[in-house]
Amino acid sequence: LVFTEEDKYGLYSNLLFKYFLAEGIVCGHELFVASAKEHPDNILKELPAPLLDDTYGKELGDEAAAVKSEDFQDSMKIAWRYQNLPKMETSPTTYTKFGHYYDVSKKMSPELCQSVKWHSFYLHEELSSEPKMKTWNMNSGYAKLLQSIQKVISEEGFDGSDPQKKQRNVLRIGIQSLGSVLWGDDVCCSDTPEDPHSLTKFLYVLRGLLRKSLSACIITVPTHLMQNKAIMERVTNLSDMVVGLESFIGSERETNPLYKDYHGLVHVHQIPRLNSLMCDVSDTKDLAFRLKRKLFTIE
Amino acid sequence: QGKFTLLRDTRTDGSFLVHHFLSFYLRAGCKVCFVALLQSFSHYNIVAQKLGVSLTAAKERGQLVFLEGLKSCLDLLFGEEEQQPEQPSPLQFLSGSSGDLRALFEFVRASLSPSGQGSWKGPVLLLDDLSVLLSLGASPVAVLDFIHYCRVVVCYQLKGNIVVLVHSNEDSEDEENELVVNSLCHHSDLILWAEGLATGFCKDVHGQIKIIKRLSLWQAEQDLVQIYQYKIQDRNVTFFAPGLSAAVL
């Protein structure tokens, strides 16, 4: 469960969200996209196009040349992988074959988008139907979303319930701007929310669904709007990975010469510690991102 | 025997202590009731195997009763209507009818009460982690009541041990959690407090552990405090005196 704290205007977290979905399509995974803000159909029309290997090499070469000319000490270059930790590479030309690269200036072709099966959940279309569930004591939008996810998991066999299924696949779930007012939750606009447990309960049930199925999930949440910090602490404990994006737009860091090549910072608050005593902590903890015309990089 | 141990973590993940106590008590031949609220059974099983214990085998021979909170929650919320009413879910409080943790307590009591099958040394209740119950809507009072009832049965009546993990952050704004943690600290015989280093992340020293031993709950004796630093490895955790990590020497 990857929990992403949105940057102030949601620009870059939205980009990460789309990368996650785009990678799912390129890998042939099934998608589940949920939003209360944009219709998932529109989100899927705006995914970045994948780069072919040879063109990427050239892109990286250009970038590398630019970096070398600027005398950075310990300059590490990586491309962001959303599902796993960023891989730090010492040499810009030896990128690993894990994951794919994307060109944010181009949109993914409709044929590629249609090549995978996907499910959408747009809150305002779902509200009309009455939920038939027992007392969950949870925000109804969240409850519906959970029911919808559970239905897809069990009907499509992601929980291993259908042994006849020839090929096991992964379900990628992306939930946009959870906790915002559009979901009917006031946790992002009130110091004392009406139901402070809805969001955390939702995360707990979602965690249960993820653990029992072949799925991965990214959530973006506008935490900069949350006044109740206690909820943020609880949410961190309930997530496997917590990443925060801080953009420099409108902040005094925009003019700080240290950050002149970057658009924002990446804060890794928590990394998963699963099936092991240890976790895979990287050496570098100060990460910043920048969005060039074609590439979004984190270094 | 009859001891209450509190595991506490701040700025770091103290779950390695949970894995330790789980394999420790199973190897010692105790009957263990493990309430695992945040991770799946396979997660603990994989780590336990690295520590030399098979949870699956322990379950099969009746030594380990494992409550997988996540699975229990899904069964409760998505389960069929015709679920037997005389066997309420241990996480019944999620369904909203009552805010107390009575059902969870009953589950613990039933798991550890002597059943005549197999003779195990002393019952143990292990819980990972208590802070999650607050996130799920249980009130601090309900959580403390639950712990109190467990203590009465497990520590006093059955002469067993309890080990509970809680999270706490410095400058935490989670008042409910702080209330529970502080209250438990006062009632613990032993506190193992894992903290991330104040100086920040370090590859060779993952954190510091403070061991606080209550010498006497009645007399005004000073608690015994020991501090060690530790490094977590794949199958082991090494402890050393502060400043004496292998990387430094």
How much of the sequence of chain A is in beta strands?
15-25%
Mean pLDDT rating of chain B: 87
User: Which structural category fits the helices and strands of chain A?
Assistant: alpha/beta
CATH-defined fold name of chain B: Rossmann fold
Low-confidence stretches of chain A: 54-96
The tally of domains of chain B stands at: 1
The span between the termini of chain B is: 39 Å
- Please, how many helices of chain A? 8
The CATH superfamily of chain A is identified as P-loop containing nucleotide triphosphate hydrolases
Q: And the CATH topology of chain A?
A: Rossmann fold
- Return the structural class of chain B: alpha/beta
Number of strands of chain A: 12
What's the CATH first level of chain A? Alpha Beta
For the record, what CATH class of chain B applies? Alpha Beta
Shape of chain A: globular
Subcellular location (chain B): Cytoplasm; Nucleus
GO cellular component, one term (chain B): elongator holoenzyme complex
Pfam families (chain B): ELP6
Keywords (chain B): Cytoplasm, Nucleus, tRNA processing
